[in-house]
Specification:
The protein has 641 residues and is α/β, with parallel strands linked by helices. The protein has 15 helices and 30 strands. The termini are far apart.
């Protein structure tokens, strides 16, 4: 009966725990211990399980057909046994396929699945998960360190570190640096290192490059015990065409569209999932939930959402099939994404579902019942592109591009944004974050500090790809590791300390994160000083307390820079990027700055502050400006005297 129910859910596109039914699982039948196998191959003539254990003989262990699903039992196989499905198509050709629901795989260049029991891991992250469930992201600090596990750090001989050693070192490092979460480039199994994991073959298997599934469970558990959330990049937009993967699984289009105008992203050389096919939806829903349930992952960053939403994505000038209304929106993908997010939040109400969506598609982070896609966070790709353009400019020409640092505020609260400087911006000749900056290395480090302060001050959650905190001047080398040797240099020790202190300041300052998604947490003071390359604004916490953020993108220092401010008594300096400990000159106010009754920037009161070159200062508004005494009160005071 249970099997019948699961089959019905699968074919209806409603099976969200498919890994419990499909794939290979330890079983006991008629007193014999072994493994049960189940795979979907609707148009196959026959399917068998093959491996070293039967000399890859496709006649030795044939599976029985149950509708579109094939299943069977093989006794006596030990864990780690290598296997594939030999799928004979209607054309008579035999295709050797890895298990779509397999939990473990051979390490590349091997392509087979491995028998593995994911049960029995002893989790000890209950306290972390309880606290996370009680702390919604919307009014909490979120500062994400994006990591590619294969190139963050390697062993002395150049080999990959394993999940457990990575977990120990990465948790200690991230905790010391003050980030609140890590986001991992895909760890789903993939055959090609150069794809960084974005062309997957194993949607239920953490890559074996770094160890076993339980090693990865240990990694996540250890992160959680150190107070660090773990987010995964997850790729439901497309899959690679490697022969062992999902590609034309039974000789026909099973997982991909059969319409040649929809089935492929030619620019990527990948196939597109068929979001209208119920069995494909069940597969993807199950994959997403698998990572949340079985690996305690705190959130999924859904890759390449724009490519899913538009039928003509990457096909401009080429052939594409319109939807039933004649438009270019993929209605099936829209429904899929809405259902995906509803499923994820039902499974874990505190989960982070993050869209990497690069267009102006509306309501990405709004609920489906108001026309939204149902994510709760979205990467702000427009801000990222504007900033990367602006940072590369000679400071003299920045005055003509001031909109690059102000336009994002026009739409900052239209979605729940994350501000990303991601891996895509520091590779393929784009240069490192430091390398984008003008001037010599000393000047570039100054620019880096000012920019990072602006990132932390800007409304929205934060994400930075690994490397800038070292002052790394080389762009990301996915075959190497970060330039850890730079930390032997005083200037790099200083920038490293700056990142630690800036992250600590961000975490302890509620004005920088309590109201990230509404105008009540932000107020412009100086939006239009393009000639000086300066912006000044307030961030506010839920109690209305304000923090002045002044950022200078020019090489000039500004003494007595007058800013119109609310009627406080004073503004007290709380953080600046030019501290001597960070390799700076200490050019910033040290004592509280008095507020004066001098009109400026449309306000009745103002303060004159110091702003360092390529730097930023933060000052907290304190007290109320003394109200002017009435004339009668002043006369009485004189009479008394």
């Amino acid at each position: 009966m249970a099997k019948q129910k699961e089959a019905e859910l699968f074919h209806a596109g409603k099976l969200t725990e498919g890994w419990r039914w499909f794939g290979a699982h330890p079983e006991e039948r008629k007193g014999q211990k072994g493994w049960g196998f189940r795979v979907w191959a609707p148009h196959a003539k026959s399917v068998s399980v093959v491996g070293d254990f039967n000399q890859w003989d496709k006649k030795a262990h044939k599976l029985s057909r149950k509708g579109e699903v094939w299943e069977g039992f093989i006794p006596g196989l030990p864990i780690y046994t290598v296997y594939k499905y030999a799928v004979t198509g209607a054309d008579g050709a035999v295709r050797m396929k890895a298990d779509p629901y397999g939990f473990h795989t051979e390490t590349r260049p091997g392509t087979a699945s491995k028998l593995y029991d994911i049960g029995g891991f002893r989790w000890s992250d209950g306290a972390f998960r309880k606290k996370a469930a009680e702390t919604p992201v919307y009014a909490a600090p979120l500062n994400i360190y994006e990591v590619h596990l294969g190139s963050w750090k390697k062993r002395e001989n150049g080999d990959f570190m394993d999940y457990r050693d990575l977990g120990r070192e990465l948790a200690a490092y991230v905790k010391e640096m003050g980030y609140t979460a890590i986001e991992l480039l895909p760890v789903t199994e993939h055959p090609l290192d150069d794809s960084w994991g974005y062309q997957c073959t194993g949607y239920f298997a953490p890559t074996s490059r770094f160890g076993t599934p339980k090693d990865f469970m240990w990694f996540v558990n250890h992160m959680h015990k150190n107070g660090i959330a773990v987010l995964l990049d997850w790729v439901p937009a497309h899959f690679c065409k490697d022969a062992q993967g999902l590609y034309e699984f039974d000789g026909t289009c099973c997982y991909e569209y059969s319409d040649h105008n929809k089935w492929e992203h030619a620019g990527w050389g990948t196939r597109v999932f068929d979001y209208g096919r119920p069995e494909v939806k069940s597969f993807l829903f199950s994959s997403a939930r698998f990572w949340l349930d079985e690996y305690h992952i705190d959130g999924l960053r859904v890759d390449a959402v724009a490519s899913m939403l538009y039928l003509d994505y990457g096909r401009q000038g080429g052939a594409w099939t319109p939807n039933k209304h004649g438009g270019h929106e993929n209605l099936e993908a829209i429904d899929f994404l809405r259902e995906l997010n509803a499923m994820a939040f039902a499974a874990n109400p505190g989960v982070l579902m993050i869209a990497e969506e690069s267009t102006a598609w509306p309501l990405v982070t709004r609920p489906p019942d108001v026309g939204g896609l149902g994510f709760n966070l979205k990467w702000n790709m427009g801000w990222m592109n504007d900033m990367c353009h602006y940072l590369k400019l000679d400071p003299w020409f920045r005055q003509d591009h001031h909109k690059d640092i102000t336009f994002s505020f026009m739409y900052a609260f239209s979605e729940n944004f994350i501000l990303p400087i991601s891996h895509d911006e520091v590779v393929h000749m784009k240069g490192s974050v430091v390398g984008k900056m003008p001037g010599d290395y000393e000047n570039q480090l100054r620019c880096l500090k000012g920019f990072y302060a602006y990132l932390l001050a800007h409304p929205g959650k934060k994400l930075l790809f690994m490397g800038p905190e070292l002052g790394q001047w080389h762009e990301w080398d996915d075959h190497g590791q970060l330039d850890w040797h730079l930390l032997a240099r005083p200037e790099n020790q200083a920038i490293h300390q700056f990142f630690k202190d800036a992250n600590a300041f961000y975490k302890k300052e509620p004005a920088l994160w309590e109201i990230d998604f509404g105008w009540e947490g932000f107020e412009w003071l100086v939006p239009d000083d393009n000639h000086n390359n300066v912006v000044v604004f307030l961030r506010k916490d839920k109690k209305g307390r304000d923090l002045m953020c002044a950022v200078n993108f020019s090489p000039n220092t500004y003494e007595n820079y007058r800013v119109g401010v609310p009627a406080h008594r004073k503004y007290t300096p709380v953080f600046n990027t030019d501290g001597a400990a960070y390799g700076g000159d200490g050019f910033a106010d040290q004592a509280p700055v008095p507020v004066e009754a001098i009109p400026s920037h449309g306000k009745e009161h103002s303060a004159a502050i110091r702003i360092p070159a390529f730097g930023a200062v933060f000052l907290r508004g304190e007290g109320a400006y003394p109200k002017p005494r009435k004339k009668k009160e002043a006369t009485k005071e004189l009479v008394k005297k």
